[in-house]
Specification:
single chain; 1 helix; rod-shaped
């Protein structure tokens, strides 16, 4: 199944932000020698910082306030609203081509925001402390879409994942992995409802095939393993043990014609000790090999 790329690079952080925090936490009052033009006390002006970053915009009492644009020495750019020297809401253009648009608190993305990545991936939703936290959606360039809960930039909580091939996973996520209870709908028409662990069917689950046959039982790494029941058709039914998707161990099979085999199975075939009751009522008991009576 398709893997899920980590999105930890979605944090609204860059080298420029280290300068950003420093310069915005201090007033520019008393440092008029850095004012290049205009009114850097109460009005509109241009100001160059100690770090050689350039601010152009509005000032109030010698502090960045109102609308302004900051061009960082490394090529990053922030453009938007400022309040008491702090950026509040705007657009941050990263030199690498990424772009963040949204709310900012404590010099980090916080609140509603949208990140447009250079590779054309898009995240939109809630941020907290510079990372995707809460409800949001990630749209991948390859067609994958996730909508649901995020924790520290990772899929975590309830969510829906639409895959490019048409499959849909709806359920629990933990640390970017599908984990917990889910409903998995396949483009083919098949549906799985049950436990999911390590990004695969693990635990108890029910799988309904496109032809409406159904398996109900335990799974291991995406395969039928352990005890379960398989309804092949209205008149054909198996109940017993499975391993690697095949009947393995002890089980009972009712065939379409009414015959019943009960006994040991190996790799999907009657093998070992068992008994076969034919439609006529005759019973054949003994040792079977590859679905045939041996002795």
């Amino acid at each position: 199944m398709p893997g899920i790329r980590r999105i930890s690079d979605m944090s609204f952080k860059s080298t420029a932000f280290l300068f950003f925090i420093f310069l915005c936490a201090t007033t520019v009052s008393g440092q008029i020698k850095y004012c290049l033009s205009g009114d850097c006390e109460n009005g509109k002006g241009s100001y160059r910082t100690d770090s050689n970053d350039l601010y152009e915009g509005q000032f109030k009492n010698g502090i960045f306030e109102g609308f302004g644009k900051m061009v960082f020495k490394n090529g990053d750019v922030y453009e938007g609203n400022w309040l008491r020297g702090n950026p509040k809401k705007g657009s941050y253009y990263f030199k690498n081509g990424d772009k963040y648009v949204g709310q900012i608190e404590n010099f980090q993305a916080s609140g509603k925001g949208r990140m447009l990545f250079k590779n054309k991936d898009i995240y939109e939703g809630n941020y907290e402390n510079g990372k995707a936290n809460g409800q949001g959606s990630l749209f991948k360039f390859n067609g994958l879409k996730y909508s649901g809960s995020f924790k520290n930039d990772l899929f975590d909580g309830k969510g829906i994942m639409n895959f490019p091939n048409g499959n849909i996973y709806e359920g629990d996520f933990e640390n970017n992995l599908r984990k917990g209870n889910c409903t998995y709908r396949f483009k083919s028409g098949a549906i799985y409802k049950g436990d999911y662990l390590n990004d695969n069917f693990n635990g108890f689950g029910v799988y309904i095939f496109p032809d409406k046959s159904m398996y109900s039982g335990t799974w291991l790494n995406g395969k039928r393993s352990g005890k379960g029941t398989y309804q092949y058709s209205a008149r054909s039914f198996y109940e017993g043990e499975f391993k690697n998707d095949l009947r393995n161990g002890y089980g009972k099979m009712i065939y379409e014609n009414g015959s019943v085999y009960e006994g040991n199975w190996i790799n999907g075939k009657c093998n070992g000790k068992g008994s076969l009751r034919l439609q006529s009522g005759k019973v054949i008991a003994g040792i079977f090999k590859d679905n045939a009576f041996a002795r």
